[in-house]
Write a structure and sequence with these properties.
6 helices; globular; binds guanosine-5'-triphosphate; binds magnesium ion
């Protein structure tokens, strides 16, 4: 069974759906215990686990969605927040199309540590990686210490592409976030493709390290040849 929205501009496919036309790598980072695994589990499998099981290294999830006539697979790498494993996860930053950076709205330290997480992205990710900032655990209203405005301001200052408040527990802005991500990356893919087709010259200096998508299981590099459309850069 597949889920289809009313407007029928997309169709969510089962997470074990084998076929796809395009795939994008997503990385989920942030302090330990902020709810990265719960957020990803709820978004992709509609499961919420109240007991805390710290992720060791990383866990892999998929989210499959059909937009127009293309099946898009998001390959999601949910990483562990523990400092001990931090050097291990930096290898996952490279070639990621988008990073979801999570803090918990009831945890001041996780918000203060965002500086460090954005620094990690600047250091290890490609320059055009997109960033979604997620303030999780909004259901804990009485424990909230970070306001929506503080989250918005941080996102703006650090050029995040989007700021979202979510509750993995209540399923608020969980699946929606991944639908949004798929749409944004699909739009970007179409823009690159159009640029590619409308230009006859290849400017090697404008090639980007992380502009990889997989098309029909073949690794395919998109060379953006028209520099007029400047992409908004993260973390600058
Ligand atoms: P690491 O794997 O150690 O990096 O942690 P994590 O960020 O993956 O946290 P995890 O998803 O394991 O969640 C940590 C704890 O927070 C668990 O006990 C969850 O049940 C709880 N939790 C996660 N999301 C929410 C939420 O939206 N609301 C509430 N109330 N609790 C949540
Ligand atoms: Mg985890």
């Amino acid at each position: 069974m597949t889920e289809q929205n009313n407007a029928q501009d997309y169709e969510i496919l089962p997470d074990d759906y084998a076929q796809y036309d395009l795939s994008f790598k997503i990385i989920v980072i942030g302090d330990s215990g902020v709810g990265k695994s719960c957020f990803t589990n709820k978004s992709t499998k509609n499961i919420f686990e109240p007991d805390y099981n710290a992720t060791i290294g990383f866990e892999f999830f998929t989210f499959n969605i059909k937009i127009q006539d293309k099946i898009i697979k998001l390959q999601i790498w949910d990483t562990c927040g523990q400092e001990l494993y931090r050097s291990l996860i930096t290898n996952f930053y490279r070639n990621s199309s988008l990073a979801i950076v999570v803090y918990a709205v009831n945890n001041l330290e996780s918000f203060q540590d965002l500086d460090m997480w954005f620094r990690e992205l600047r250091t290890h990710a490609g320059p055009d990686i997109k960033v979604f900032l997620v303030g999780n655990k909004t259901d804990l209203k009485d424990e909230r210490v970070i306001t929506t405005q503080q989250g918005e301001e941080f996102a703006k200052l650090n050029h995040a592409n989007k700021f979202i408040e979510a509750s993995a527990k209540e399923g608020v802005n969980t699946q929606n976030t991944f639908i949004d991500i798929a749409k944004i990356l699909f739009d970007e893919y179409n823009n690159y493709k159009d640029d590619d087709q409308s230009s006859n010259t290849t400017n090697k200096s404008n090639e980007k390290e992380n502009d990889y998508v997989s098309e029909s299981n073949k690794s395919h590099r998109l060379e953006k040849t028209n520099t007029n459309k400047k992409q908004k850069k993260c973390c600058k």
